[in-house]
Amino acid sequence: MKRKLGDTDWSSKETSKSSKSAAPTSFDSFSLDSRLMQAIGKLNYSTPTPVQTAVIPPALEGKDILARAKTGSGKTAAYLLPILHRILVAKEPGNGSGTNTTTGLILVPTRELADQVYKVIDIYTELCGKQIRAVNIARNISDSIQQSLLLDRPDIVISTPSRAAIHFNTETLELSPLKYLVIDEADLILSYGHENDMQIIAGGLPKGVQTFLMSATLTDDVEQLKELFCRHAFVYKPDQKEEQGEGGTVNQFYISTGEDTKFLLLYVIFKLKLIKGKSIIFVSDVDRCYRLRLFLEQFGIRACVLNSELPVNSRLHIVEEFNKNVYEIIIATDENEIIGEEEDTVSDNDDNADTGDAMDVDDNSADQPSKKKKKKTKKSKLRKRDTEYGVSRGVDFQNVTCVLNFDLPVTSKSYMHRIGRTARAGKSGMALSLYVPRELYGKHRPTSVLSTENDEKVLERIKKQQGKLGNELKPYNFDMKQVEAFRYRMDAALRAVTKVAVQNARMKELKQELLASEKLKRHFEENPEDLKHLRHDREIKVVRVEAHMKRVPEYLLGKGQAANLVQGSGGAHVPFKVGGRRVTRGKMKGKGKGKNVGKRKDPLKSFGRVKR
User: Fold this and answer.
1) Rounded Cα–Cα distance for residues 225 and 196 (Å)
2) Other Cβ atoms within 10 Å of 47 Cβ, number
3) Annotated region Disordered: where (predicted)?
4) What are the tens digits of pLDDT across the range 57-115?
5) Domain of residue 95, CATH code
6) 50 found inside a domain
7) What is the per-residue DSSP string for 232-271?
C-alpha cells in the first residue's frame, strides 16, 4: 500500500543537501516564533548544528524531509522547531484554527525515546502557555487513560507505531486532520516488527501530510518507508567532516583477553579508578547484566542494570538519574537493537564494512542452530521482555566518558551505535572493547557466551568500518603481571556468582522495581522529592559479600600506587590498618591470657569432675 501524493508534495526529484553551503551564524536566520527563540536562548544554544542548518529552512517551507543524522546531532530539534513554529502560526488570530485538532504525530521505536521527545517538546513550549499540547501514549498507562488523553485532541501525539495503530483502529486517534508526520530512528522501526502497523497508519493518512524521516543509517528499511510515505523528499546526508564535527573525538581501544580474564580486567579498571567519569557497560544478554553486577558488588562497586525486563518507569528513571550524575555505571543490554542481525554476519566472503548507509547483513535467521532458540525460549519464561525497549539508539545519555563493550556486539553496525553514546556535544570520549580470540573461546565454561565465538572476525569488520570513517582502533596495553596479582580475589568473587544467584537476583530486582514502578507511582507524582531517594544501584544481597573484598590491600599495588590511589580515588581505598600499631600473632603469644591458658588438658580428667 502506497500513500497517494498530494498537491503539496514538491519536486519530482530528490534534492540533496551539501555541507558546502554557508551555515547560518545563529537561529535568528530561521525567523522562528519569538517564544521558541527564547526557549533556545535559555538552553544556551548559540549556533545550529549541520543537520539543523540543512533541514529547518526546507521544513519551514513545508517540504518532506529525509535526513541521515545520528543521535546527538540535534536532529530532534531539526524536526520539532519547524513543526512547533507552524502550529503556533496556525493558531494566531485570523488563521482559522479555533478547534482543537491533532495535527502532529511523532512515531518512535522505543518508549525511552518517546519519553525523551516529549520532554524536549515540553522544554521548547515552556513559554507558549497552553497553546501547544502534547501527549505521550507510549507510556505504561492503561488504555482508558490513553483514550481520554487522545479524545482531548492534543496538538502533537508521541507514540510507538503499535500504540498508534491500535488507537487508529479503535477510532480514538484521528489521522484525517494530520499535517505533520515524524518517523524518528526510521531504520529501527521496521526491524522492531512494526511493518503492519506502518501500513495501517499509511492507509489512514490524508493527502499532503508533511513527512520527516530521521535515521542514523539509510538502509533498505528506510527506503521502504520512504516509498510508503514520501517518495519525493529533500534528502540530507552529512559528509565525513560534518559527521566528525557533530561530536567530539572517540578514542577507540580493544583488548584481547580470555573469558574469565574479562572480569579480572573490569575489576581492576573500576576498583583502581583507571577510567574516571560515567561509563556504560554493554553485555550480550540479561543474565550477563546481573552476573556482572553481582560480581562488582562484592568489591563495593555499585552499578545499575538496564534491560528490557525492567518496568518502563524504572528504565526511564534510571536514565534520568544517570544524566543527573546520581549513578556512574550502567550495565546495559541492547538485545532488541540487533533483531535481524544474526551471527553469520561475520562470514569471510562478505567484505563490505558498514559505513552507515547499508545494513551489515541479511535479515534471515533461519540458519541459526536450534540450541540458540531453545536458550532464548528458556530465558523468556522468566519474564516477557519489552519489545519497545532500546538503549544503544536514540536515548540521550549525557556526559558519558567511556563505553565499555564487555561483550563485543555481533555486528559492526551495532558497535557504531554503541560507541555513539559517548563523545557527544563536542566532548571527547573513549570506547574500550574486550574480545575473545578464537583459541580462548570456550576455555572457561561458567563465563562463556555464544556471541563471543566470532569475536575475531567481528573485530576485523569493525576495524575496516572505522577505517573507512577515518578512525583507528588501538590495542590497550595492561601490565598483566600486576593485573594477575588480583586474580585470586577475582576467582573468589566469580565463584560466588552462580547461576542460581543470578536467577535470584533477577527475580528480586524485578519485584523491587515493579513495586517502585506501579504501587508507588502515584505517591511519587504527588511527592516528587521522595523520588530522589529511590535508588536502582542498591546491593541485591543474594551473594554473600566478604567485607575484605571491598578493600584493595597495599601489597597488591606497586610502589607509589597506594598513595596515588588514596589521593585520586575520592576515599574509595580503605587500608587494612585503620589506626594504631599492627601487632603480629608472634608478639602476642602468651600475653593477656589466663594462667591456665596454653596448657594442654586431658579431656578424660575434666569429664570426671562433671557433676551428675
Assistant:
1) 12
2) 11
3) 1-25, 341-385, 583-612
4) 999 999 999 999 877 788 999 999 999 999 999 998 877 666 789 999 999 998 889 99
5) 3.40.50.300
6) yes
7) S-EEE---HHHHHHHS--EEEEEEE--TTHHHHHHHHHHH
